[in-house]
Amino acid sequence: MARVIRILWRLDFDVSYAYLDNRGSALRVLNETVGGFWNESGPATVPLSFAAERTERDISHTHFSWEIDSLNGSIEWPVGIDIERLFESPLFRATDRIVREALKLADVRVLNRAGVRLVCVEQFAEKTGRSARERVCEIAVPVFRDGLERTLGRTNDVAMVYEGKSDDGLGFRVQFGPYVRKNSEMAFAIKWGDASEPLGGNDLFFDIDIYETKLSFSEHSLFRWSSTKVAKAANFIEFCRKAH
């Protein structure tokens, strides 16, 4: 089963005057909606914004940012969390509760853009004697792959990038390839060192960004909106793990 090593989310909206008028209440929402959740919180470097962080040594790191025209944040785990258990995570549930109250205080009903980005690792369903790089290269067009190696040299790593839009209007950008340690090191917000060593047993690395523009969010929450997008990402990852 795919493991999420980092989830990033962002909700963009018009400048919230309600937030500007109630910054004291906004800070209370950030700190008291889930009491004692953050290790640190307060004014951030972006003008008129707040930020908060929670770090559990060798386990997780959660970040939250509240700006005049957006809410955004991320959660990461050095060894990942099963994608099917992502929304059971106390970290995501706490984040969702805070986002609900923040949107209410900021009087946000319509989003200019909502996006969720998943960074995941996975193993091939079938084990063979070939390396993950060789197996991913087989998915690429052989003529291009052979031409690249003939003109430039042997391929040590490979990544594929796809961008597009689904029938239901969701935009997406997908990057995937064989897993190497530099992938996770670049994806994490903090340095986990040896805590992320168990990721080395994986074959595939995915960076999947799914977003929607100009949508009513009154009937949604971060949980409700993102869960359907994560399900789409999980289906794609499952297809790739069985491809070769």
- SS-derived structural category: alpha+beta
Spatial gap, N to C terminus: 16 Å
Tell me the series of helices and strands, N- to C-terminal.
EHHEEEEHEHHEEHEH
The largest beta-sheet arranges its strands as 2-3-4-5-1-6-9-8-7
- Cα-atom Rg, whole angstroms? 20 Å
Strand percentage lies at: 25-35%
- The number of distinct β-strands equals 9
Count of helical regions: 7
The backbone outline, from C-alpha atoms, is elongated
Can you give the mean pLDDT?
Answer: 92
Low-confidence stretches: none
Main sheet record: 9 strands, antiparallel
> Portion of residues in helices?
25-40%
Structure description:
This protein has 244 residues and is an alpha+beta fold. Helices cover 30% and strands 34% of the residues. It has helices spanning 17-21, 23-32, 90-105, 132-137, 142-151, 181-187, 222-241, and strands at residues 3-12, 40-43, 50-56, 60-67, 70-82, 110-122, 160-165, 171-178, 204-216. Strands 2-3-4-5-1-6-9-8-7 form a nine-stranded antiparallel sheet, with helices on both faces. The two termini are 16 Å apart. The model has no long low-confidence stretch (mean pLDDT 92).
